[in-house]
Amino acid sequence: MAGLFHLLRNLTGRPYFRCVTGGFSMAQQWWSEDVTIESRIVGRYVTINSTERAAEYMLDEWPAEQRGEAFDAAKQALIDAHEGTVSVDYALRAFVAAAEGAEIFFYKSPR
């Protein structure tokens, strides 16, 4: 997972290579709500239920033309949650705010 957040930190919109770290596994930071959000494939939705899954979505699925200040704030919130400096719920709220700002369709459902 550390490689994933390193990529998120250095996200530039250019193609990237996903790092796979072996031998180390950290606990997932599960969210209190699931966020079901549209993907790049028309008619396909994915469920985001953790900080790590949100980071993957931002790297792989987020439309490049819809990256702005809210995207950057959400990206930083995910990194900060991963590092333990903000709450997981804060990262969830930042991710949802970025999706709203980018007009990406989503809905939340409590667990």
Describe the 3D structure:
InterPro entries: DUF982. This is DUF982 domain-containing protein. The chain is an alpha+beta fold and 111 residues long. It has one domain (2-110). Helix content is 42%, strand content 18%. The protein contains four helices and three strands. The protein has helices spanning 2-9, 51-60, 69-83, 88-101; strands at 30-38, 45-50, 106-110. Strands 2-1-3 form a three-stranded antiparallel beta sheet. Helix 1 (2-9) packs across helix 2 (51-60) and helix 2 (51-60) packs antiparallel against helix 3. The longest helix is centred in the C-terminal third of the chain and has 15 residues, at 69-83. The two termini are 24 Å apart.
What does the overall shape look like?
globular
Structurally, the number of domains stands at 1
Strand content: 15-25%
Order of helices and strands: HEEHHHE
Report how far apart the termini are. 24 Å
Residue windows where pLDDT falls under 50 for at least 5 positions:
12-26
Backbone CA Rg: 13 Å
Structural class: alpha+beta
Order of strands in the sheet with most strands:
2-1-3
- How many helices? 4
Q: Which percent range fits the helix content?
A: 40-55%
**DSSP strand tally:** 3
What is the mean pLDDT? 80
Largest sheet: 3 strands, antiparallel
